[in-house]
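Students often ask why inverse folding is considered easier than folding. One informal answer: many sequences map to the same fold, so there is more than one right answer. In these notes we will look at a single instance of the problem. The structure comes first.
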């Protein structure tokens, strides 16, 4: 129902008649471009995680090779092909330093079971196979059976845990054995052809095993060879009028020459490393390769080199790409046409051809590391150049650029002051993503045998070594380098995507 309402002017009131109005003061500080970018980046949890992972990897690559007790190039054949062993994890049966032998004949294991194995001696002169050190692993295995001391029950229990194979109607029982390789390294063993200095060192460490004879006398298990010194003694006797039967000949030799003739002796010493009070357990976190080199140290050393190659390629690619793309996109026309055609020709050449030609021309003149880096730089800048060129076309005709040109700004100022800052997010992202691409390229060419020489440690060379030695037999040699390069690729991509969003001017002020 419509009604005409009569409102008296007295019903109105001037609420601002006696009130002064002022602008309110901002209670928060103004946020700059980079502050706003940092705020947006910090809200991207995946990028933060990727950044932390990259920092950890970089720190490990710097400090692990420096502070590790193992050297990158030190060869120790006795510790070749050791599986990974990691403290704490070994308590859960993971990376516990064990290796598996498959298809061991049960009859052979039964023949090894002999009371004399408790005095197992690593002596090549032994004719009895039950005393051969090669049976060490089998002895450790069969001693784990509950009925080890009962031959009948032991054989029955052993066969119950075996599997049957048939060949030419002959049935054979076999078992798979899992043994601790690191434990075998610390077993008692003969050290052959040792010098007197080494003998005295073993003696001072208390690791020489003593043997008690039938009369109850305890003697060190050491065989002394004086033959290496006999010729020198004979010459000494001829020169000084002595004979080999002269009393105190060794003292006379020391008095005349000032040298101890015993330093020329050689020794065979039977030692037990566990007798050393300072004995330390051996750990190779990622195992060892065929020559006993520690894979943990070599992997981080290789990561360091791969990261340096990636950083070098990124810096050069961004520098060349930004300059090339800025000139091409800003001036356009014939300049852009000529530069783009050159870029297309360059990108059309397969990377394997570029790598091969570069190596043919520069091999022997500079190091292989620089050859790989130069091969990468030759074509890696083209992607950055194309991206910068598109940004130039996008922003060069904007009103604020035209205004600046009208006010007299030169081309260099327009490019680097007004246009490129708007493409900063894209440029930074491109720079970050060049690094994993370079690492992956280096790994690819090394895997094909065209990259850095094998004497230089890199992730690609480690992958190549793991393939050559056998991925099935020694999977850890390939697993850890492959896992690390995968983490690097994923982390760099996630970090780069986070930076791209954080540095995007169009998202400024957004949540």
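Output (designed amino acids):
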């Amino acid at each position: 129902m419509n009604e005409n309402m009569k409102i008296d002017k007295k019903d109105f009131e001037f609420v601002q008649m006696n009130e002064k109005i002022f602008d309110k003061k901002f209670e928060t500080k103004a946020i700059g471009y980079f502050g706003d970018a940092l705020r947006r980046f910090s809200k991207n949890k995946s990028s933060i995680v990727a950044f932390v992972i990259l920092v950890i990897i970089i720190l490990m690559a710097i400090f692990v090779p420096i502070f590790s007790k193992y050297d990158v190039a030190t060869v120790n054949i006795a510790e070749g092909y050791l599986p990974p062993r990691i403290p704490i994890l070994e308590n859960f049966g993971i990376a516990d330093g064990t290796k598996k032998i498959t298809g061991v004949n049960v009859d052979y294991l039964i023949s090894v079971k002999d009371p004399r194995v408790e005095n197992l001696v690593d002596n090549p002169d032994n004719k009895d196979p039950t005393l051969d050190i090669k049976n060490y692993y089998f002895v450790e295995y069969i001693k784990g059976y509950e009925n080890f001391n009962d031959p009948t029950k032991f054989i029955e229990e052993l066969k119950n845990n075996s599997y049957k194979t048939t060949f030419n109607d002959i049935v054979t029982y076999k078992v798979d054995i899992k043994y601790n390789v690191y434990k075998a390294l610390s077993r008692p063993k003969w050290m052959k052809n040792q010098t007197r200095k080494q003998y005295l060192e073993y003696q001072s460490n208390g690791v020489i095993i003593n043997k008690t004879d039938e009369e109850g006398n305890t003697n060190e298990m050491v065989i002394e060879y004086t033959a290496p010194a006999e010729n020198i003694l004979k010459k000494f006797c001829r020169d000084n009028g002595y004979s080999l039967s002269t009393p105190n000949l060794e003292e006379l030799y020391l008095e005349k020459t000032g040298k101890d003739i015993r330093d020329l002796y050689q020794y065979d010493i039977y030692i037990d490393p566990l007798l050393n009070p300072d004995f330390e357990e051996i750990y190779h976190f990622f195992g060892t390769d065929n020559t006993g080199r520690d894979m943990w140290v070599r992997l981080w050393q290789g990561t360091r080199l791969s990261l340096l190659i990636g950083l070098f390629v990124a810096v050069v690619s961004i520098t060349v790409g930004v300059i090339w793309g800025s000139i091409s996109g800003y001036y356009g026309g014939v300049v852009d046409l000529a530069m783009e055609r050159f870029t297309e020709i360059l990108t059309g050449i397969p990377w394997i051809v570029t790598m091969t030609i570069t190596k043919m021309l520069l091999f022997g003149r500079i190091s292989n590391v620089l050859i790989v880096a130069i091969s990468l730089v030759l074509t890696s800048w083209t992607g950055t150049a194309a991206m910068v060129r598109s940004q130039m076309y996008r922003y060069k005709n904007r009103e604020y650029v035209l205004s600046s040109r009208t006010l007299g700004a030169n081309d260099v100022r327009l490019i680097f002051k007004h246009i490129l800052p708007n493409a900063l997010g894209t440029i930074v992202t491109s720079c970050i993503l060049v690094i994993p691409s370079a690492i992956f390229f280096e790994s690819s060419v090394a895997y094909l045998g065209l990259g850095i020489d094998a004497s230089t440690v890199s992730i690609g060379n480690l992958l190549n070594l793991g393939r050559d030695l056998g991925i099935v037999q020694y999977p850890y040699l390939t697993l850890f380098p492959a896992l690390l390069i995968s983490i690097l690729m994923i982390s760099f991509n996630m970090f780069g995507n986070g930076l791209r969003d954080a540095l995007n001017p169009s998202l400024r002020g957004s949540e």
